[in-house]
Amino acid sequence: MTLRRYSFASWCAGCVFGLAMLVFSGCSVVEKTLDMEQRIFVRVPGKMIEDPVSLQSRGGKGWCFKHVVEAPRSEAGVPQNWYLAWKLGEPRSQLGSRIPRWKTVRSMAVEISRDVHEIFGCYPVLIEPGLVFKEEASRSPGHCLLAGATNAPGGLPKATIRSLPKKVWSSEKTEDGRVDPLWHLDDEHSQLASARAEVRRQAGAAAKSIKIGILDNGFDARHPIRPVHFIDEPAANALQALIPPGPDQNSDKGCLAAPGQTYGSHGTGAVGILAGRKVQVAPHPGVALPADGVIEIGAAPDAEVVAVRVAPEMASLSTANFAYGIDYASRVKRCDVLSISHGGSASYMWADAVNSAYDRGTAMFAATGDYFPLPLAPLYTHRLGIIVPSSTVYPAAFRRVVGVAGVTSDGKSYGRTDWRRYYLNFWKPDQIGSSFMRGSYGADHVRRSLLDAWLWREDAKTDRTQVRRKNILRANPISAFSPAIP
């Protein structure tokens, strides 16, 4: 049995990530992101047990366990699984702090191991404190709803345009200067519109057989552009799934909220880009719309989309909620693809969740993250190491996950600073985030320090630190158009 410690590097990465969010994202975001507590998790060899009644030791008077993540098999081929551990009547355990209390965990190890053996017939191979978000899945007023539930003639939902793209990002416009809302789908950019038409021609109704899990900070299921095939279940809300049951073994009573009932703004936008349905949009003087106002934003609108909420905001510091979300989408819902607009510092449980999903054949695509160059001089300050590291965050940094970075319509502004726009806009309150923010890039499995950010030149075409035998690992991940689209 091992009592696992977090690595110092992982802890430091988490602190840097949290500090960056504090400076650039606003206190309310950071408050939610850091609203965490420690709980105890155990990795146990043997067949998975999910029935909560079967996971109570000493007749319900000892430690209780709840399945969280399926881990990869051991080298001997033995199944392994992660469980949340808590003492009945003490659902928050004795580890309320964000800092791992190893002395407390050690004092409980013998008792936990005895109760694990009583239930599972074997001893745990690993016991560690793990972070979870404290926020429970309470409903909140929706702020992303663009229109009511009314439909346009023909049954299409109605939507309105609230604002135009920020000028700090480049955007495609028509000859009369109006914004083209679907520029990112055309053949000069992503070719997604043509691919969508070809899939429909070849697959027809079978296109919905593809199941995509999207992991984000919540969704607004009332939004008119939500996917047609939208799977939205309370069990997919990882913030409530890891709340230990109370004495009556029914802790979820009164707080069962599906991800689509949590009204997360980022998740609502991301799921619309992924698989948004056809809508009729009200005329807007600055936007070029078809004569009938009907547009289809989603790249894969015919696919089944599984909504999974893994955090209250867009970052995780090794939380078990994120590992649960990957396991739920891949193992429980059998998703073919995972779209992950989320990242942070990794944990042992994250690695197990990713490796198990990979072994099942789940394709995983994750955002590489963002960084913020400082406005010191018209130089590429990231090459001098004056940055929040622009290397890839986890889980995109795992080799079994494909990292995806964002670019603007000109294909470069998201990675390199347009200094003229930068200095003209960075001080404006409504554009400060966009003016500073750039998409992270760099090879997977790389975290550069301030020194090697300068030594290895992050804008190089290849990453010399990661060349493997005859293969040249490119310095940049795959890219997708992200700013200045609906």
Strand order of the largest sheet: 8-11-7-13-15-17-19
Silhouette: elongated
Q: What's the SSE pattern?
A: EHHEEEHEEHEEHHEEEEHEEHEEEHHEHE
The N- and C-terminal alpha carbons lie at a distance of 51 Å
Radius of gyration, taken over Cα atoms and rounded to an integer in Å: 23 Å
CATH topology-level fold name of the largest domain? Rossmann fold
Rounded mean pLDDT score: 78
> Which architecture of the largest domain per CATH?
3-Layer(aba) Sandwich
Number of domains: 2
**Unreliable stretches:** 1-25, 137-149, 248-253, 376-388, 449-463, 465-473
Please count the beta strands (DSSP E, at least 2 residues each). 19
CATH top level assignment of the largest domain: Alpha Beta
Beta percentage is: 15-25%
Roughly how much helix do the residues carry, as a percent range? 10-25%
Count the DSSP helices.
11
Which class best fits the helix and strand makeup? Answer: alpha/beta
Q: Tell me about the biggest sheet?
A: 7 strands, parallel
Oligomer: single chain
Describe the structure in your own words.
By secondary structure, the chain is an alpha/beta fold. It folds into two domains: 2-133, no CATH class; 205-275 and 299-481, 3-Layer(aba) Sandwich (Rossmann fold), CATH 3.40.50. It has helices spanning 8-25, 27-33, 102-120, 192-203, 238-241, 265-275, 320-332, 348-360, 419-425, 432-436, 450-455, and strands at residues 2-3, 36-45, 63-71, 80-87, 126-133, 158-159, 211-216, 230-231, 278-281, 294-296, 304-309, 315-317, 337-340, 343-345, 363-367, 370-371, 402-407, 438-439, 478-481. The strands form five sheets. A seven-stranded parallel β-sheet has the order 8-11-7-13-15-17-19, with helices on both faces. The chain is elongated, with a radius of gyration of 23 Å. The N and C termini lie far apart (51 Å).
